[in-house]
Write a structure and sequence with these properties.
- With 541 residues, this protein is of the alpha/beta class.
- The chain has 2 domains: 21-232 and 508-540; 240-497, 4-Layer Sandwich (Nitrilase/N-carbamoyl-D-aminoacid amidohydrolase), CATH 3.60.110.
- It has helices spanning 18-45, 56-67, 72-90, 100-124, 130-145, 171-203, 210-227, 261-280, 305-318, 369-375, 413-421, 441-456, 502-506, 509-540, and strands at residues 240-247, 289-291, 322-329, 337-345, 349-355, 394-397, 400-404, 426-428, 460-462, 470-472, 478-481, 488-495.
- The strands form 2 sheets. A 6-stranded mixed β-sheet has the order 5-4-3-2-1-12. Strands 6-7-8-9-10-11 form a 6-stranded mixed β-sheet.
- Strand 7 (400-404), helix 11 and strand 8 form a beta-alpha-beta unit.
- It is elongated, with a radius of gyration of 28 Å.
């Protein structure tokens, strides 16, 4: 009897798909990280001195795409990474004289704000027309870091990378917040348009209204920039004035330029006397007034007789009112120290003064001095804290009302707006960038001055100790500029204007409206989450 043997196959286990799935997730996460970092680097590359303003759009698109649909914790992490990629190279000039620690600490502190923005963008990214709410949150982040801590730090506003861009006229509509908002909205709109294009290739369908929303968020900011062009004008409204800006240069670069006080003063005197000689010889037109830089005389001419006589001789030689940048120490053991501009008359000597109101933390005063000195030996270079002034700076010089914002103040909206509202027919930004060597800092600050010219429709004259000095038209065009670390005299006839742009009239209003847009997006997300949870609880019951 034969037996039939039946073979039974041993069941094979299903292949383990978990490792493949984990690898896919890890790869997707690395792509998001790379996109956030690349976005930050492109945003940095869009800033001066490079004329590549348009790189902000793909940079923001990558940044926004990396955050879309992410959880809150991932949104913070990606936002922080993109912020570091943007801010570390942008602010490297802060390390020129004081080393790496302050640079890295400042960059990280500012990037934390961008991390919080990233968290918010991730939260609103599932809403309809998400680029709108996300751009509002970006403005909220810029508003926060322009105010906190220690009076804020406005460097790195998207608006300040756009002095040559098509969006620039929007500065006259609502200032730097509206200009930043337009660029960010367009960048995030590009991210959404690309996302919808990919979705269509995969499914041949897109959600109703998605294409329209993506197109509007891209095209509306560009159309707004074109529509705002009539607000930009170089036409004189109260005649014009011939202005001379003096750049005397400093003997040595770096923080120790303050120890060269007499030499720096002499350099500015020499250039002023040279201008006077050329005017007398008929080689140059006689200016209506002259502008010296911040710190052009760190010898206090109100209390130092030698400095007073030296400056007075130079001003009398040119024979027109001259603004002098100096330091003034009030007498007495408790006498306060001010970063001061003086309206110096060739006939009556020193007159009206403007004391810098927004003084620079860690540069002109040392917050938490005892702690700062433990981390950096250079904290001791700020031996005495400056005091902030309280008056808005407007001098009447040869019949022209000149408004002043000193150096660091150009970064802050209110500090530039105030003198225009007080009647300034043109603006001057006396500056001292000698501390920062040949870094990008001076070009970043010059870009701010260009944006301010359009924002308030005013000519802007920028005299600096060591460059780059410039004369800027109300449309943001630079018509005269100096080199770095070389003596120079810039002279031009500038239009004087009296009308106020919408940005000047509206003040901080547009900024708060845009912050409210971001807040509305967050509120919508919270409301949807609460509603969803209640619905789930009701079904379980």
């Amino acid at each position: 009897m034969s037996a039939t043997v039946t073979s039974v196959e041993t069941p094979q286990p299903e292949p383990d798909r978990a490792p493949a799935s984990a690898k896919k997730r890890r790869r997707a996460w690395l792509v998001r990280v790379a996109a956030a970092i690349a976005g930050g680097l492109l945003l940095y590359a869009s800033f001066p001195p490079r004329p590549l303003w348009f790189l902000a759009l793909p940079g923001l698109a990558l940044y926004g795409w990396s955050l879309h649909g992410r959880r809150l914790r991932a949104g913070f992490g990606l936002g922080l990474l993109g912020g570091l990629a943007f801010l570390l190279p942008l602010l490297v000039w802060t390390s020129v004289e004081v080393g790496s620690f302050p640079w890295i600490a400042l960059s990280v502190a500012e990037a934390v704000f961008m991390g919080l923005v990233g968290l918010g963008v991730a939260a609103v990214s599932r809403l309809p027309v998400w680029p709108l709410w996300a751009a509002g949150l970006w403005i909220a982040g810029e508003a926060a870091r322009s105010r906190f801590p220690f009076g804020g730090f406005s460097w790195g506003k998207v608006a300040f990378g756009q002095p040559e861009g098509v969006f620039l006229p929007l500065a006259a509509v609502g200032g730097t917040p509206v200009l930043s908002f337009a660029v960010v909205l367009c960048g995030f709109g590009l991210a959404e348009a690309a996302r919808q294009a990919v979705a269509y290739r995969r499914t041949r369908t897109v959600p109703r209204g998605a294409v329209t929303a993506a197109a509007v968020t891209v095209l509306a900011p560009v159309a707004g920039g074109v529509a705002a062009l009539p607000l930009v004008s170089n036409a004189p409204e109260k005649g014009s004035a011939t202005v001379a800006a003096i750049q005397g240069n400093v003997p040595r670069m770096g923080l120790d330029f303050n120890s060269q006080r007499a030499a720096v003063l002499d350099n500015h005197v020499k250039q002023t006397l040279k201008l006077a000689a050329e005017v007398k010889a008929g080689k140059r037109p006689k200016p209506d007034f002259v502008l010296w830089p911040e710190n052009s005389s760190d010898l206090d001419p109100l209390h130092d007789e030698g400095a007073r006589l030296t400056i007075d001789a130079a001003v009398k030689a040119i024979g027109v009112p001259t603004e002098i940048g100096t330091l003034v120490q009030n007498p007495g053991p408790e006498g306060k120290l001010y970063n001061t501009l003086i309206n110096w008359s060739p006939t009556s000597g020193p007159g009206a003064t403007y004391e810098k109101r927004h003084i620079q933390p860690f540069g002109e005063y040392m917050p938490m001095r005892s702690i700062a000195e433990k981390f950096s030996k250079d904290a001791g270079l700020v031996r005495e804290d400056f005091s902030p002034g309280t008056k808005v700076g407007v001098f009447t010089m040869a019949g022209t009302k000149v408004g002043f914002a000193t150096c660091y103040e150009a970064a802050f909206d209110n500090d530039v707006r105030d003198p225009v509202e007080a009647g300034a027919e043109m603006l001057a930004v006396p500056s001292n960038n000698a501390t920062f060597d040949r870094s990008e800092m001076t070009y970043q600050q010059l870009a701010m001055d260009q944006v301010r010219a359009v924002e308030h429709s005013r000519s802007v004259v920028v005299p600096t100790t060591s460059g780059v000095s410039a004369i800027i038209r109300p449309d943001g065009t630079i018509v005269r500029r100096s080199g770095m670390f070389t003596p120079a005299v810039l002279e031009d006839r500038v239009p004087l204007r009296t009308s106020l742009t919408p940005a000047t009239r509206l003040g901080t209003g547009p900024e708060w409206v845009l912050v409210a847009v971001g807040a509305a997006g967050v509120a919508w997300v919270v409301a949807r989450t609460v509603r969803t949870r209640r619905g789930g609880a009701a079904r379980e019951a």
